[in-house]
């Protein structure tokens, strides 16, 4: 891979390694055996608003809409207020779906003995561990689709939060990191 290419992951020397800490309830958070991660990727959604900012925006919209609807109700247009409530309920439901997926992310940690993939999607956690020596990295198709990691009968698709044009680069970078890891392993004598 050319040195000018953008690196999506973070490659660490063994002295810079540290255990991956997870928030409570997000999995074991244990680092790989024998030390910390040597390479890691954190792929997150690109969200413009945090859930708290979204709640504040929703409350401001509710206040404005109910003020206008209440004004019309006071002057005799009684049907405006029920429709305002219907509108705000639909908007609240849409914002709730958005907020539920605002923290979606994928974490990939690579060490000499373990590749851990954690997919957080809508509050659910899927964690899969692989042996890096038996791991296959392949795109599902060659059109910028998701990247499939497979080994020992388990598969996981990654790259949902990466632009389709950069997924191939992510796969190449991951393969490069696996090759670097293999070249650093002590050879049996």
Written overview of the protein:
- With 189 residues, this protein is α+β, with helices and mostly antiparallel strands.
- 35% of the residues lie in helices and 22% in strands.
- It contains 3 helices and 8 strands, in the order ββααββββββα.
- The strands form 2 sheets. It has a 5-stranded antiparallel β-sheet, with no helix packed on it. Strands 6-7-8 form a 3-stranded antiparallel β-sheet, with helices on one face.
- Helix 1 packs antiparallel against helix 2.
- The two termini are 31 Å apart.
- The model is unreliable at 1-7 and 13-35 (pLDDT under 50).
Keywords:
189 residues; alpha+beta; 5-stranded antiparallel β-sheet; 3-stranded antiparallel β-sheet; 3 helices; 35% helix
User: Major sheet, described briefly?
Assistant: 5 strands, antiparallel
The assembly state of the depicted protein chains is single chain
Please mark out the parts with pLDDT under 50 across 5 or more consecutive residues, or reply none. Answer: 1-7, 13-35
The rounded Rg comes to: 23 Å
How far apart lie the N and C ends?
31 Å
Q: What overall form do the CA principal axes indicate?
A: rod-shaped
Strand content: 15-25%
- Give, in order, the helices and strands: EEHHEEEEEEH
The total of helices stands at: 3
* Number of E strands: 8
Largest beta sheet: strand ordering = 1-2-3-4-5
Q: What's the pLDDT, averaged over the residues?
A: 79
The helix-and-strand class reads alpha+beta
User: What percent of residues adopt helix (DSSP H or I)?
Assistant: 25-40%
């Amino acid at each position: 891979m050319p040195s000018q290419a953008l690196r999506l992951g973070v490659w660490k020397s063994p002295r810079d390694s540290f255990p991956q800490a997870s928030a409570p309830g997000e999995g074991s958070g244990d680092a790989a055996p024998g030390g910390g991660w040597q390479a890691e990727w954190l792929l997150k959604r690109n969200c413009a608003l945090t859930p708290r900012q979204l709640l504040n925006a929703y409350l401001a919209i509710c206040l404005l809409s109910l003020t206008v609807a209440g004004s019309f109700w006071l002057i005799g247009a009684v049907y405006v207020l029920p429709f305002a409530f219907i509108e705000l309920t639909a908007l609240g439901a849409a914002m709730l779906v958005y907020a539920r997926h605002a923290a979606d992310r994928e974490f990939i940690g690579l060490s000499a003995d373990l590749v851990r993939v954690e997919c957080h999607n809508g509050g659910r956690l899927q964690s899969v561990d692989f042996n890096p020596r038996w791991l296959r990295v392949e795109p599902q198709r060659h059109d910028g689709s998701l990247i499939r990691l497979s080994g020992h009968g388990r598969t996981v698709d990654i790259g949902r939060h990466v632009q389709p044009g950069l997924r191939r680069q992510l796969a190449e970078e991951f393969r490069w990191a696996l090759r670097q890891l293999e070249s650093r392993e002590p050879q049996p004598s």
